[in-house]
Design a protein that fits this description.
It comes from Kribbella ginsengisoli. The protein is mainly β and about 270 residues long. The chain contains two helices and 20 strands. The chain binds calcium ion (4 copies).
């Protein structure tokens, strides 16, 4: 059941799946005044982020940011170092980004994407600031949006995969990968055009990307939604696997990761909704 819910949130079908709920963007998220009366402004996503890759309580005070059916993200939107929250509203096709852990009102709203697209974040140009993008499942296309609005695309992998971004080779620029839920298989596209593919975790777990060992290169993790357990592949993309696992949060939470304290190492968080 929970896997289905997570899957819905992560797939293009989310818009139709939750359309009947008519959950509008809170007024506080609006970049411009609207003549349409907005419902009560509520942020229903509660973020519990930790700077310690251990089980236990959140090390950052809980805050509320975003609501259903928004898709949570993290990134260094202002280049200050460290990741902060963002959300993507798949129906309005807008990113709402914040540069703090205060919750409530974001600093940046960016309309981007088409119906069915899934949100991306990454440092496309290696300047230390993360940008946004979208993945179009029907064409397997990653569209990266530069800060000035210019776009560039990469088509990679089979259609209808789970898109991932990260810096596989440590050159400061984020690359792309895909995850195939039925097989639990990751496929990484390296900048030289080669690929690396392996299974990690069980089918239909949730893939996550971060730098667990602080070497400047990103690697995968998987999250088992039925046990609320994260599995961090601390050995990176090397064939020899070393994994650190922790339980954090509860089944039903949404997992995400980021470098919340800007120490160049990624840690976990969950969103309760
Ligand atoms: Ca950048
Ligand atoms: Ca790279
Ligand atoms: Ca690493
Ligand atoms: Ca960190």
């Amino acid at each position: 059941m929970r896997t289905q819910i997570l899957s819905q949130l992560l797939t293009a079908g989310v818009a139709t799946a939750v359309a009947a709920a008519v959950i509008a963007v809170p007024a506080v998220f609006k970049a411009k005044p609207t003549t349409v009366a907005a419902p009560t402004a509520i942020c229903t996503y509660q973020w519990y982020l930790s700077n310690s890759r251990t089980s236990g309580t959140a090390t950052i005070p809980m805050f509320a940011y975003g609501n259903t059916p928004m898709v949570p993200l993290s990134g260094d939107w202002d280049g200050a170092g460290g990741d902060t929250p963002g959300v993507y509203h798949p129906e309005e096709r807008k990113f709402f980004l914040t540069n703090s852990f205060a919750g409530g009102v974001g600093q940046v709203t960016i309309p981007f994407g088409a119906v069915g697209d899934r949100p991306l974040a990454g440092d496309w140009n290696g300047d230390g600031t993360d940008e946004i993008g979208v993945y179009t499942p029907s064409t397997a296309t990653f569209t990266r949006r530069a800060a000035d609005g210019a776009t560039s695309t990469i088509t990679y992998g089979a259609k209808y995969q789970v898109p991932l971004t990260g810096d596989w080779n440590g050159d400061g620029t984020d690359d792309v990968a895909t995850y195939d839920p039925p097989t639990g298989s990751f496929s990484f596209r390296l900048p030289d055009g080669t690929t690396r593919t392996f299974r990690y975790g069980d089918p239909y777990w949730k893939p996550l990307i971060g730098d667990w060992n602080g070497d400047g290169r990103d690697e995968p993790a998987v999250y088992n939604p039925s046990t609320a357990t994260f599995y961090f592949r601390v050995s990176g993309l090397d064939p020899t696997e070393t994994t650190q696992s922790i339980r954090y949060g509860d089944p039903g939470d949404l997992p995400l990761v980021g470098d919340w304290d800007a120490n160049k190492t990624s840690t976990q968080g969950i969103i309760r909704y």
